[in-house]
Amino acid sequence: KASFCDKCHPSDPNVCIECEAGYINYNGTCILTCPSEYYMYQGVCTRCSAHCGRCNPNGTCYECLSGYILFGDECIPECPAHYVEVIINHVKVCVACTDHVSCLRCKPYSPEICEFCVSGTVMQNGLCIKECDIGHYFHNGVCIKCDTNCLSCNVDTCEYCYDGFYLLNGQCVNTCPEGYYSNGHICYRCV
Q1: Within a 10 A sphere around the Cβ of 104, how many other Cβ atoms?
Q2: What is the pLDDT of residues 116-172, one digit of tens each?
Q3: What is the pLDDT of residues 7-31, one digit of tens each?
Q4: I want to staple 18 with a disulfide (CB 3.0 to 4.6 A). Which of 6, 9, 133, 176 is the partner?
């Protein structure tokens, strides 16, 4: 008869079917606690869900095996779109990006900073917005800040300066240099 066993298998006395009080059946053997990756269900050690390293008594996974991330109560190899991997209490979990509608993928371990936006939006300072703010230009999917004092620009030149500044060769200056005069917000060469 197997140790701590109340009822053995009829054809094999080394395989337990029912354990004594306080013991749990694990593959025909009576033990005190189920090993990791298992939970006790009706006196039997039952396997947690796929790729789950630890689950609670009702079988809900709360920690995944190495190489997997907890998403709800499932273990998956990588977080889906609009979610990012973070570590909470030493456990890798998928959490929704702060902007889980417009942000397709956030920066690893930083749900508040977006890396890629959904179509129809642009990224500025880690956020997805409909269009770049004044003083920024759109380049390769990202809003980039124009040079200081520049109100509107493209990749390499300013197109329009803030009040009190003048446009000279694609740059904003405090005053037009000698040999130039201002008309509106632009410095023109004297003739």
Answers
A1: 18
A2: 899 889 999 889 999 999 999 998 888 999 998 999 998 889 999 999 999 999 999
A3: 999 999 889 999 999 999 999 999 9
A4: 6
Q: What is the pLDDT of residues 43-65, one digit of tens each?
A: 889 999 999 999 998 899 999 99
Q: Are 139 and 145 in contact (CB under 8 A)?
A: no
Distance CA 27, CA 161 (A): 77
The 10 Å CB-count burial string (b at 16+, else e) for 17-51 is eebeeebbbbeebbbeebeebbbeeeebbeebeeb
- Kindly report the pTM of this predicted structure: 0.65
Neighbours of 146 (CB within 10 A): 23
Cα distances (angstroms) measured from residue 179 to each of 88, 157, 187: 64, 22, 10
Dist CA 139 CA 19 (whole Å): 68
Q: What is the DSSP letter of 131?
A: S
Q: How far is CA 92 from CA 86, 95, 115, 116, in A?
A: 6, 10, 20, 22
* Furthest-apart CA atoms within the chain: distance in Å: 112
Rounded to an integer, what is the distance from CA 172 to the centroid of its chain? 39
Left (φ > 0), alpha (ψ -120 to 50) or beta: where does 170 sit?
left
Closest CA to 102 of 80, 127, 84, 125: 127
Encoded amino acid at 51, one letter = H
